[in-house]
């Protein structure tokens, strides 16, 4: 039971990270290759706020969200808007990778190479549930992930902002003549994605240790979850994330640590061969399954 | 009302529109006529700021708007119904109309405007929950116009509103444009098949490969033998 909840908790964080990738992908068709670094910065800054500034846990995460939003805006302004024209070419593939490398190395300089033990929410308090001791932190991970997923879906489907996001995703120029500022909408999506990444990074850090290597240790799983579930698809992100978490828990019981990730990624490759668009099919708003066929 | 002076527009190094000047006065319907690739859409898209002008100036109500953003032009009362209608196919009809009112924050104003739109286009009200992509061509054109009217523009630009529509629907669209014009909206039209457009136009310009080659009243242009041969088919027999 403990293992199951652990796997679900991890999975729900992968889902959040995949959702954050999807927020950007479904509006701009850009895959944010710097996303792993953004997650890592979310975890490291919240660690820094807790340990060095002695902030309260929640306040630290909120501050990390703010920093991540600023970081994402910076990434958009430099790597996407200035260096990689998102309508004319695919330079953003290289510039976003470059941004990721720069961020990782800056993080290494600031926070050092030592992995840090990240505290749990409520000091790791656990409650007895289903005949097992389950950490409140893990339950909160699942609850927060699901709430964010539902809130995002509501915003996209029901609000005027969401309507504009879907319009921009279909045709930015047509959206502009409606009076929508397409680049502001895209920028906002980058900011939201960064905020979500901060939450995911900070909540998963107690289970993985916080270090600048999280970009690859954790970030890459975000991409795996997104691909398994279907890029840009909210439900897909959750299915992919939870599936990855369960798979990891299950494989981890049978295979020693070093090989675990290799097996998981082999399975991911297999899933992508069988279902190129992911379990639910890649989704760009308004483009339906066309995108999945193109991949 | 709209004054375009020495406008030059290009894509990369290719110049598409060369040093064009034209104007539209308040209350007029003006048609810009030209074959495929003459640069008509480029001119319109530059007016609504989707393209940057290479040189030249555009002013509206006496104020320079050359460097405005599209959303600023929407606020100033300039709306375009783009070529091919550009309905958002996965948004419902209702959502398409609401997108047209994106800059309006006052919910009461939106509702009032929506009522008057539905009064004018009862068909759209019947289909308000349907997806935009499921409408017929004519209905999509109505929706595209309705969407643009949501901000009560004073200046309406239409890029080939008759494109791909059945002749009977085309007549309907032009009747509607006349009505909109009568209610005080200035209209700038671009057309390829222009007989019906010229009939309702006060003035018209003819463009060839990015240059204005002819201008005159709608009737003058319509009865000009060269224009008739090139753009109007067998209009002389009519």
UniProtKB/TrEMBL annotation, chain A:
Which segments cross the bilayer? 6-25, 32-50, 56-79, 91-111, 131-156, 184-207, 213-231, 238-256, 262-285
Look up and give the membrane topology term: Multi-pass membrane protein
Q: Where in the cell is it found?
A: Cell membrane
Does Cytoplasm appear among the keywords? no
Under the heading InterPro entries, the entry gives:
ABC_transp_permease, BCAA_transport_permease
Arranged from A to Z, the UniProt key words for this protein are: Amino-acid transport, Cell membrane, Membrane, Transmembrane, Transmembrane helix, Transport
Q: Please list which residues make up the signal peptide.
A: none
What single Pfam family name could you report for this chain, choosing any that match? BPD_transp_2
Tell me where on the tree of life, at the top rank, the source sits.
Bacteria
Q: Which family does it belong to?
A: Belongs to the binding-protein-dependent transport system permease family. LivHM subfamily.
This protein is called: Branched-chain amino acid ABC transporter permease
Look up and give the organism this protein is from: Sporosarcina highlanderae
Automatic annotation (TrEMBL), chain B:
Task: Locate the coiled-coil region(s) and give their ranges.
Answer: none
Q: What is this protein called?
A: ABC transporter ATP-binding protein
Q: Recorded GO terms, molecular function?
A: ATP binding
The question of whether Nucleus is a record keyword is answered with no
* Occurrences of domain ABC transporter (ranges): 2-234
Keyword Lipoprotein in record: no
- Keyword set for this entry? Amino-acid transport, ATP-binding, Nucleotide-binding, Transport
**What family does the database annotate?**
Belongs to the ABC transporter superfamily.
């Amino acid at each position: 039971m403990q293992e199951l909840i652990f796997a679900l908790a991890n999975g729900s964080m992968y889902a959040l990270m995949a959702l954050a990738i999807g927020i950007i992908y479904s509006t701009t068709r850009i895959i944010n290759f710097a996303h792993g670094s953004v997650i890592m910065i979310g975890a490291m800054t919240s660690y820094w706020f807790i340990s060095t500034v002695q902030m309260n846990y929640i306040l630290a995460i909120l501050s990390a969200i703010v920093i991540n939003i600023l970081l994402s805006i910076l990434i958009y302004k430099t790597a996407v808007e200035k260096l990689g024209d998102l309508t004319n070419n695919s330079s953003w593939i290289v510039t976003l990778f470059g941004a990721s490398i720069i961020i990782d190395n800056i993080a290494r300089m600031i926070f050092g190479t030592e992995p840090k033990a990240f505290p749990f929410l409520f000091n790791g308090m656990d409650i007895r549930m289903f005949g097992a001791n389950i950490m409140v932190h893990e339950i909160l991970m699942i609850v927060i992930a699901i709430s964010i997923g539902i809130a995002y879906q509501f915003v996209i489907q029901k609000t005027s902002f969401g309507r504009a996001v879907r319009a921009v995703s279909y045709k930015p120029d047509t959206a502009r003549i409606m009076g929508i500022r397409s680049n502001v909408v895209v920028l906002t999506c980058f900011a939201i994605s960064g905020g979500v990444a901060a939450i995911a990074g900070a909540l998963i850090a107690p289970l993985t240790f916080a270090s600048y290597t999280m970009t690859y240790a954790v970030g890459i799983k975000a991409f795996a979850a997104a691909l398994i579930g279907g890029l840009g698809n909210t439900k897909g992100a959750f299915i992919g994330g939870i599936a990855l978490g369960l798979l990891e828990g299950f494989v981890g019981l049978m295979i020693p640590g070093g090989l675990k990730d290799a097996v998981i990624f082999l399975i991911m490759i297999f899933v992508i061969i069988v279902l190129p668009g992911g379990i639910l099919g890649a989704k760009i708003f308004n483009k339906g399954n066309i995108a999945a066929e193109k991949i | 009302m709209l004054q375009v002076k020495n406008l030059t527009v290009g894509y990369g190094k290719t110049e598409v529109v060369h040093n064009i000047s034209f104007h539209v006065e308040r209350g007029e319907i003006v048609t810009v006529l030209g074959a495929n690739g003459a640069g008509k859409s480029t001119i319109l898209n530059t007016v609504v700021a989707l393209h940057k002008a290479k040189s030249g100036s555009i002013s509206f109500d006496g104020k320079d708007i050359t460097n405005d953003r599209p959303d600023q032009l929407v606020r100033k009362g300039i709306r375009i119904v783009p070529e091919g209608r550009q309905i958002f196919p996965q948004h419902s009809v209702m959502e398409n109309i609401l997108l047209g009112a994106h800059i309006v924050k006052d919910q009461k104003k939106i509702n009032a405007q929506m009522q008057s739109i539905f009064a004018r286009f009862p068909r759209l009200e019947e289909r308000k929950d349907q997806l935009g992509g499921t409408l017929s061509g004519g209905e999509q054109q109505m929706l595209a116009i309705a969407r643009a009217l949501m901000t009560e523009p004073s200046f309406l630009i239409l890029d080939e509103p008759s494109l791909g529509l059945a002749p009977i629907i085309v007549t309907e669209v032009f009747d509607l444009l006349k009505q909109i014009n009568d209610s005080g909206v200035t209209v700038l039209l671009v057309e390829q098949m222009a007989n019906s457009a010229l009939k309702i136009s006060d003035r018209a310009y003819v463009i060839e490969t990015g240059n204005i080659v002819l201008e005159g009243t709608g009737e003058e242009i319509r009865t000009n033998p060269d224009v008739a041969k090139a753009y109007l088919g067998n209009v002389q027999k009519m």
